[in-house]
């Protein structure tokens, strides 16, 4: 068990539905910052309404991706988070910038990794004729959507599903999965010790949602 609330920073690019789920979960954490690459991101408005400090940096103000990432992550580091959560953050992060965050940053991705890294995961799932779809939370590494997966939530794919219906049904599962993972980290059950461990045992397969309740 940690002796103080986990300090959590969040990066998001969009409306912030996963951030809203984290806030609504009433986790025993301190949200120290919500940052975005989009000035009008809904996540920033949600954070401000909840009294969480916010940050926006415009990528166009920087010479290249690495310069932007160094500036953004430098500002995130100033908030001294124990954990960084990428909750719908849509930019690929420079590998040299993310490397120092190994074991301290997680991302939620709408596929059953290692399937369908990157974008258009629902479309790829349907095109492949998969019987199930899902979401994954993984520790972030320099490899795009390639870090160790710690937990997944699964849904069946219906014969009539479209990208939109599949995305909508999966989103409700994401909104349960991400807070469950952050709760497990905050309680000390899920930790990084050269790799993910749960209740002191190295993970050999992703946890399911019920194991994290």
UniProtKB/TrEMBL annotation:
SUPFAM superfamilies: Formyltransferase (SSF53328). The active site is at 109 (proton donor). InterPro entries: Formyl_transf_N, Formyl_transf_N_sf, GART, GART_AS. N(1)-(5-phospho-beta-D-ribosyl)glycinamide binds at residues 16-18. (6R)-10-formyltetrahydrofolate binds at residues 65, 90-93, 107. It is an enzyme of class 2 (transferase). Residues 7-182 form the Formyl transferase N-terminal domain. It catalyses: N(1)-(5-phospho-beta-D-ribosyl)glycinamide + (6R)-10-formyltetrahydrofolate = N(2)-formyl-N(1)-(5-phospho-beta-D-ribosyl)glycinamide + (6S)-5,6,7,8-tetrahydrofolate + H(+). The record marks 145 as: Raises pKa of active site His. Its EC number is 2.1.2.2. Pathway: Purine metabolism; IMP biosynthesis via de novo pathway; N(2)-formyl-N(1)-(5-phospho-D-ribosyl)glycinamide from N(1)-(5-phospho-D-ribosyl)glycinamide (10-formyl THF route): step 1/1. PROSITE patterns: GART. Keywords: Purine biosynthesis, Transferase. GO terms for molecular function: phosphoribosylglycinamide formyltransferase activity. NCBIfam families: PurN. HAMAP family: PurN. Belongs to the GART family. Catalyzes the transfer of a formyl group from 10-formyltetrahydrofolate to 5-phospho-ribosyl-glycinamide (GAR), producing 5-phospho-ribosyl-N-formylglycinamide (FGAR) and tetrahydrofolate. This is Phosphoribosylglycinamide formyltransferase.
